[in-house]
Design goal:
Blueprint lengths: L3 E8 L4 E8 L4 H15 L10 E5 L22 E6 H8 L7
Parallel strand pairs: 1-4
Antiparallel strand pairs: 1-2, 3-4
């Protein structure tokens, strides 16, 4: 299966993780829609698939742009991705860093 990659998807909104295959020949926004709909179906509607979500690389904190093809990103097998709603992303960015 050279046209898909197996990634670990972390969904903080549900406090869950999923191992999923994503197609490498699709753009990020289509993959996000597929993921949201799949998680909605798997969790019996616990996730609102009509919200806007972002994919964030857990290792390097990179937020993937919507119009980039997965193959042109650094997403490969065993990549850990965080699936955040835009609302959650805004809340995280507004938190001041803790200085010690």
């Amino acid at each position: 299966m050279n046209n898909k990659v197996l990634v670990k998807l972390i969904v903080p909104e549900l406090d869950s993780t999923f191992d999923i295959f994503i197609p490498v020949n699709e753009v990020v926004w289509k993959v996000k829609k597929l993921i949201a709909k799949s998680i909605y179906d798997l969790t019996n509607g616990d996730l609102d698939y009509n919200k806007d979500y972002v994919l964030v690389n857990k290792t390097n904190s990179k937020v993937y742009e919507n119009n980039v093809v997965i193959l042109d990103t650094d997403i490969r097998n065993a990549t850990e991705l965080i699936f955040l709603s835009i609302k959650d992303m805004d809340a995280i960015s507004n938190v001041a860093p803790i200085v010690m």
